[in-house]
């Protein structure tokens, strides 16, 4: 816990060609009134000009500056004002962190630890404060001056300069601060929220690129509407800005009401952009917009909790893209990405849990594990709780934590408490690295008319985690009869204990088995013939699945499964099997012939 909290932060930037002067005025209060402890501020490549406490310049012996910190040895033990002036050199900052210049424009990037390159600050996400930002700059070189929140005041200054004063009424961590100044033009539009407020939307680019922002604007409006409809989340300010810059490390950044994007994720023209470019723009515009609630209004207590905002927001953008296009196609592409990038990471020397235990440099921890596997973890809550249960969990999460910096357990607890759910050892998904291997053996007993699925699981060792515990794996299952139709499921026995599957008169065709042990058997009763199982429907858990399904089972699923993802998956597993058969035929000098069933199945369509 920090010893001091920051209530308000008033920033002033005097932007110049050879130096920029940053003045910061912070209302500080000690966590425990009456207790003074050293106040340690982060700073990186900063030239300190002055420090004042309650208006008085500090004497040399009252503070200490090192290459990474400014320490006030004994600040006042009750609320005080801290004023710091620093000098920085954005024109020679090539780190793409802090304040830098991109194609002649000033621009910031503060996540994760870039704010400390702007001014001395407690640069950690649990320090949430209300900011104002005054920007002064040459008017002809930098006609557009942007920061977070609402524009309160603007005007001309002497010497060809002008200024703008921005005020962000929402508390935020320093990593969400942003400033942009330069020669930009905007595409403007409006969005009327569900409560009837009109929000001005602006997408800023160099003037020649404005025509290429139409799809980005469409995507933004679609995202705003979707978040209202699906999660009841309304945008909270009257202005939303997006800026496209050519020099940007990551895809984009969710700074409060001033999202900054790599140009390639904003600009598209029908002449040159592919369908995939359009889909990427929709997804990333959605992603950054959705952070306004999952990341900004509710943020991370510390950077170990990164997946709290990223896993959840990736899940939200995946769902958004699914609803805007084809759910099955989107799921296939997301699972393919997970398998080709995250699985290798989870199996290699960089394997780490969704919530890492340590990091050397925070900017190296924006990984496919934190993002994509993190999204799968969020998806499992939804699979276990259903859409309405998941929504209840989200509602409780915001009710409890709006305006706070919280942890993955807080999210877990909101999901659990809103539904009175039993999530067993689910939290292991955050702490154990490695992709679990799940084996399934099936058997049908015509006498008892029962169908059994025997599961066994293994989580491979990963660096620093030689021994693993069994995980809680939600396995969505359906059973197909010989005509290819889903069999209505009524009851299933888990290690002998009876579970009712259908709680209402509505027939149930997919049920979620809760596999929690190293070995566990599920038995479906009342099954009239040997079914073909559709296992892990919709890819209900991020595991490697081995089953005893035969080639003919796979052909059958490819033709009939009502779950689109599994129909595709059956084709993948089958094609791999057939190719490997051909390899072994070749090695035995057997003439190569493609299984004719494959053509028959394909012709059926
Ligand atoms: N938070 C950004 C996102 O997920 C990614 C990012 C991280 C951008 C760090 C810049 C620096 O949308
Ligand atoms: Zn994100």
What's the tally of helices?
10
Overall outline: elongated
CATH structural architecture of the largest domain: Sandwich
Report the count of strand segments. 31
Could you give a short account of the major beta sheet? 8 strands, mixed
Describe the structure.
This protein is α+β, with helices and mostly antiparallel strands. It has five domains: 1-181, tricorn interacting facor f3 domain (Immunoglobulin-like, Sandwich), CATH 2.60.40; 184-297, 2-Layer Sandwich (Zincin-like), CATH 3.30.2010.30; 300-423, Neutral Protease, domain 2 (Orthogonal Bundle), CATH 1.10.390.10; 437-545, Sandwich (Immunoglobulin-like); 549-605, no CATH class. The chain is 27% helix and 31% strand. The chain has ten helices and 31 strands. It has an eight-stranded mixed sheet, with no helix packed on it. Strand 26 (491-494) and strand 27 (497-500) form a beta hairpin. Helix 1 packs across helix 2 (275-290), helix 2 crosses helix 3 and helix 5 crosses helix 6. The structure holds phenylalanine and zinc ion.
Task: Give a quick summary of the entry.
The protein has ten helices and 31 strands. By secondary structure, it is of the alpha+beta class. The strands form seven sheets. The chain has an eight-stranded mixed beta sheet, with no helix packed on it. The protein has a six-stranded mixed beta sheet with strand order 27-26-29-24-23-31, with no helix packed on it.
Short key terms for the protein model shown above:
binds phenylalanine; alpha+beta; Zincin-like; 605 residues; Neutral Protease, domain 2; single chain; Immunoglobulin-like; 5 domains; 31 strands; binds zinc ion
């Amino acid at each position: 816990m920090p010893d001091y909290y920051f209530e308000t932060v008033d920033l002033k930037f005097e932007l110049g060609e050879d130096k920029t002067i940053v003045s910061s005025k912070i209302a500080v209060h000690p966590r425990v009134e009456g207790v003074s402890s050293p106040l340690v501020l982060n700073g990186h490549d900063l030239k300190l000009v002055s420090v004042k406490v309650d208006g008085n310049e500090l004497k040399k012996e009252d503070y200490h500056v090192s290459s990474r910190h400014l320490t006030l040895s004994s600040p006042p033990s009750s609320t005080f004002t801290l004023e710091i002036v620093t000098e920085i050199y954005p024109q020679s900052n090539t780190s793409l962190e802090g304040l830098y210049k991109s194609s002649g424009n000033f621009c910031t990037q503060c996540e994760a630890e870039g704010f400390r390159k702007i001014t001395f600050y407690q640069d950690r996400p649990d320090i949430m404060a209300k900011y104002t930002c005054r920007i002064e700059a040459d008017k002809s070189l930098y006609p557009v001056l942007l920061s977070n929140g609402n524009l309160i005041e603007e005007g001309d200054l002497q010497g060809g300069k002008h200024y703008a004063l921005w005020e962000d009424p929402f508390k935020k961590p320093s990593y969400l601060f942003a400033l942009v100044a330069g020669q930009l033009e905007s595409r403007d539009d409006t969005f009327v929220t569900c409560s009837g407020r009109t929000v001005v939307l602006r997408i800023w680019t160099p003037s020649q690129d404005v025509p290429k922002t139409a799809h980005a604007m469409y995507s933004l409006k679609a995202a705003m509407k979707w978040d209202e409809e699906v999660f009841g989340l309304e945008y909270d300010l009257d202005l939303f800005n997006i800026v496209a810059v050519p020099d940007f490390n990551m895809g984009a950044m969710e700074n409060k009401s001033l999202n900054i994007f790599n140009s390639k994720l904003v600009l598209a023209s029908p002449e040159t952009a592919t369908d995939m470019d359009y889909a990427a723009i929709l997804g990333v515009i959605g992603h950054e917009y959705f952070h306004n609630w999952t990341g900004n209004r509710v943020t991370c207590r510390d950077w170990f909790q990164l997946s709290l905002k990223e896993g959840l927001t990736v899940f939200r953008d995946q769902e958004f893209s699914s609803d805007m296009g084809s759910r099955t196609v989107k799921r296939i592409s997301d699972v393919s990405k997970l398998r080709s990038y995250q699985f290798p990471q989870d199996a290699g020397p960089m394997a780490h849990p969704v919530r890492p235990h340590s990091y050397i440099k925070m900017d190296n921890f924006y990984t496919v594990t934190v993002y994509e596997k993190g999204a799968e973890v969020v998806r499992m809550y939804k699979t276990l709780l259903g859409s309405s249960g998941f929504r209840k969990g989200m509602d409780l999460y915001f009710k409890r934590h709006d305006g706070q910096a919280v942890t993955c357990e807080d999210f877990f607890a909101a999901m659990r408490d809103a539904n009175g759910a039993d999530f067993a050892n689910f939290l292991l998904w955050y702490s154990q690295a490695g992709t679990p291997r799940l084996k399934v053996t099936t058997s049908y007993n015509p006498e008892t008319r029962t169908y059994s699925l025997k599961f066994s699981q293994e989580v491979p060792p990963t660096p620093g985690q030689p021994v693993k515990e069994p995980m809680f794996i939600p396995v969505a299952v359906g059973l197909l009869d010989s005509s290819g139709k889903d069999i209505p499921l009524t009851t299933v026995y888990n290690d002998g204990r009876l579970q009712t599957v259908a709680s209402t008169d509505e027939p149930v065709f997919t049920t979620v088995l809760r596999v929690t042990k190293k070995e566990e058997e599920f038995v479906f009763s009342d099954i009239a013939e040997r079914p073909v199982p559709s296992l892990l429907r919709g890819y209900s858990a991020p595991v490697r699945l081995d089953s005893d399904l035969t080639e003919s089972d796979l052909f059958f699923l490819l033709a009939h499964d009502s779950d689109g993802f599994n129909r595709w998956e059956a084709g993948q597993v089958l094609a791999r099997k057939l190719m490997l058969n051909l390899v072994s035929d070749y090695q035995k000098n057997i003439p190569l012939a493609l299984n004719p069933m494959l053509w028959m199945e394909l012709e059926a369509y």
